[in-house]
Amino acid sequence: MDNYAVFGNPIEQSKSPEIHSIFAKQTKQKLNYVKILGSLEKFSDSLEAFFSDPSAKGCNVTAPFKQDAAKWVSSLSESAKFGEAVNTIIKQEDGSFTGDNTDGVGLVTDILTNGVEIKNASILLLGAGGAARGVLKDIAAQSPSNIVIANRTAAKAEALASLLPFAKVQGMELSHRSFDSIAGHFDIIINSTSASLSSELPDVPDTTISQASMVYDMVYGKQLSKFLQHAKKLGVPKTIDGLGMLVEQASESFHLWRGVRPDTSEVVKKLREQF
Prior knowledge:
By secondary structure, this protein is an alpha/beta fold. Helices cover 37% and strands 21% of the residues.
């Protein structure tokens, strides 16, 4: 039986084994999927030990190992190259390893599934770290009218914006005063910062939030994040957490490994019921 795994540290909280187990049953695929605590000292040893078993066909990689995985694989997809991070490793028939990053596909698919168009929309992306970099290329591929990346350190946002050959991408400081220079409104606001993990609100004016058609937070949990709750109070029509993104990025990984695409709606519903 083919073996798969997810590596992280910590890893106990991962829902990936449950997600892929449901995918396998749906698509009648026989496989094992487990979670493995990766070595902080030498992550490459963890990967090599896993893939020393001929039945190991692929794995997922989560924090804090996505950059390490990008250096370990034989080749990178375009998304992984841009994001400088790998969350999916595929073992090829010749024994080489391809690294991909399915986070952007996961985010975009979830937004579209929720009935929100990215094409011609004005996008505000909060944060310029690994999470933002991992999804930016896929967001841009949907042809939004413009993208503004706002980060506590403006230089980091500007550096990320400069990587895209897309005229209407700019970086700026994430602060109330910076929004004074922005004309018009944002249709979609995406929070990739860690603010919600500590129940903090990103430094975005209420007037900016209230004009959005959708506010998306990559964090998910039993309750909406403080940011999404705040957006809801301000009258934003759609407030969406990152659970759908988690399932959709897993679906893309499953497709890369097995060549079939599972139904994600059932899985999102099941996970939501468990909270």
